[in-house]
Amino acid sequence: MAWSKETKAMVASLTDEERRIFQYLYNRHKKDPGVALLLSIVLGMFGVDRFYIGDTGIGWAKLALTLLGGIGLLWWMIDIFLIWYATERMNEKLVPQLIVQAKQWHQSGLVIPPAKQTPALLTALAVIAFLLVLTVVCIALYKAVSSTPATMP
User: Fold this and answer.
1) Residue 5 and residue 7: Cα distance in Å, rounded?
2) What does the alpha-carbon distance between residue 56 and residue 49 come to, in Å, rounded to a whole number?
3) Residue 70: how many CB atoms within 10 A of its CB?
4) In whole angstroms, what is the distance from residue 35 CA to residue 8 CA?
């Protein structure tokens, strides 16, 4: 984690139990930079990498620019090198709200449930497989529609 000094100080100010709750919440909400990079390489031209990390504004912009002309392809190639840092930045933005939530959990006496997570890489691969199948179906439909002879009145 490459957090700023301020973020590290916020986490250090927590009690041991609050820090344990915070770590649990952080691990549940953070996005994996490796998964983001994989998504960026495979489907980044459509903004999927940015949607994954929660940067939906940039995700929609990449998608629109790719669909409207291909300018998004240049952005995609550049973003492959930027996505790791962007993921870490988005993860760090989670810290203040998770600290508040950890303190509320601690005060209310809630117990941390046992960890039961799907690995992020497995989730990313499932999303990629779904999108590839969806792409193949769209291409097949497009070819079927475009190869149908037009009837003239």
Assistant:
1) 5
2) 9
3) 11
4) 24
Question: Which is nearest to 31 in space by CA: 47, 10, 54, 48?
Answer: 54
Which DSSP letter does residue 30 get? -
- At 143, the pLDDT band (50, 70, 90 cuts) reads confident
The alpha carbons of the chain give a radius of gyration, in whole angstroms, of 21
Unique residue bearing structure tokens 């940067």:
55
Per-residue pLDDT, 45: 86
Give the CA diameter of the chain: 78
Output 125-133 pairs: Cβ under 8 A, ≥24 positions apart.
127/39, 127/48, 127/52, 128/38, 128/39, 128/42, 128/43, 131/43, 131/48
Give tens-digit pLDDT for 28-73: 889 989 889 988 988 888 889 999 999 999 989 988 888 887 777 7
Backbone angles phi, psi at 130, to 5 degrees: -60, -45
Q: What is the pTM of this model?
A: 0.67
Q: State how far the alpha carbon of 126 is from the alpha carbons of 37, 77, 109, 129, in Å.
A: 15, 23, 36, 5
Spatial CA neighbour of 53 closest among 68, 71, 37: 37
